[in-house]
């Protein structure tokens, strides 16, 4: 008896397992690093606040480094976010360092100029006529005399402007209050100066910014118009830009303690000049 041929031996089928691919986790560190880096970059330009920005940038940097390492190993997502956080944090730190150096140099320059000004004697208050309160004095235009004090109504050169102090009101509380209902009371009392200016430069001038009025009180202190927050009827901030030869009239106010008004002095000077010789003193009523 013949037997059927036997089938060749076959190995049992074994399915091929795919290689194990670990599942990537979230990108929490990368997102936090990016958010902190952007916040630090936005705050890095602001004086004083940029000290906080530097701390935020360091934290963003500390979170971004491990986030990038995890992303490169493939265990976590967010490689692009981590890189963004690192870049913004580094830029923010660089900006903070640069702005801090700039602000420090400006403060040093201002401090040096103040020291020089304090060492410069102010013209004697005895040369001024006695002033009266709440009195508005008009002067007639004429050529400036060769003295330390320029009379009211007489033009004098201050920086790029020919400046005439038309009138000074030593107790201007009522005038300032009437100019705007939202004006609050002065800490001391308002002193109001009305100026007529002509731009003599060769480009363009903004007298409301280019000029500063300072009242030198009899208490040996200075009171600048920049410290007076009142809105005036003819406010210096409303003066238009002047071309060469352009003129306008406006007002400055100063907040001065009442006891320091009598015997005080008024000067007009370029805002960006730190040389006390550039200031011009005007006689008061």
TrEMBL record:
Pfam families: DUF4190. The keyword Transmembrane helix applies. Residues 29-98 form the DUF4190 domain. The chain crosses the membrane at residues 27-46, 52-69, 81-103. InterPro entries: DUF4190 (IPR025241), Immunoprotect_excell_Ig-like (IPR029050). Keywords: Membrane, Signal, Transmembrane, Transmembrane helix. The keyword Lipid biosynthesis does not apply. Coiled coil: none annotated. Gene3D superfamilies: 2.60.40.1240. This is DUF4190 domain-containing protein. It comes from Geodermatophilus nigrescens.
């Amino acid at each position: 008896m013949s037997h059927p041929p036997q089938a060749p031996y076959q190995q049992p089928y074994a399915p091929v397992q795919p290689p194990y691919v670990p599942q990537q986790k979230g990108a929490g560190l990368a997102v936090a690093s990016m958010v902190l880096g952007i916040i630090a970059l936005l705050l890095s330009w602001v004086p004083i606040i940029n000290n906080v920005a530097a701390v935020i940038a360091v934290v963003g940097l500390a979170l971004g480094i491990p986030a990038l390492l995890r992303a490169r190993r493939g265990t976590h997502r967010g490689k692009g976010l981590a890189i963004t956080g690192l870049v913004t944090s580094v830029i923010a730190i660089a900006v903070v360092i640069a702005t801090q150096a700039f602000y420090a140099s400006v403060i040093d320059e201002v401090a040096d100029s103040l020291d020089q000004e304090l060492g410069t004697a102010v013209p004697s208050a005895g040369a001024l006529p006695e002033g009266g309160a709440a009195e508005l004095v008009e002067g007639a235009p004429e050529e400036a005399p060769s003295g330390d004090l320029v009379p009211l109504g007489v033009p004098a050169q201050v920086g790029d402007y020919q400046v005439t102090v038309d009138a000074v009101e030593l107790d201007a509380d009522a005038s300032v209050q009437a100019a705007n209902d939202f004006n609050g009371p002065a800490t001391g009392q308002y002193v109001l100066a009305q100026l007529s200016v002509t731009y003599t430069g060769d480009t363009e001038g903004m007298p409301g910014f280019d000029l500063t009025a300072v009242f030198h009180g009899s208490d040996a202190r200075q009171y600048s118009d920049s410290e007076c927050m009142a809105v005036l009827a003819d406010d210096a901030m409303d003066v238009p830009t002047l071309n060469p030869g352009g003129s306008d009239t406006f007002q400055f106010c100063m907040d001065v303690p009442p006891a320091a008004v009598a015997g005080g002095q008024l000067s007009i000077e370029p805002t960006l000049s730190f040389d006390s010789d550039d200031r011009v003193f005007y006689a008061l009523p």
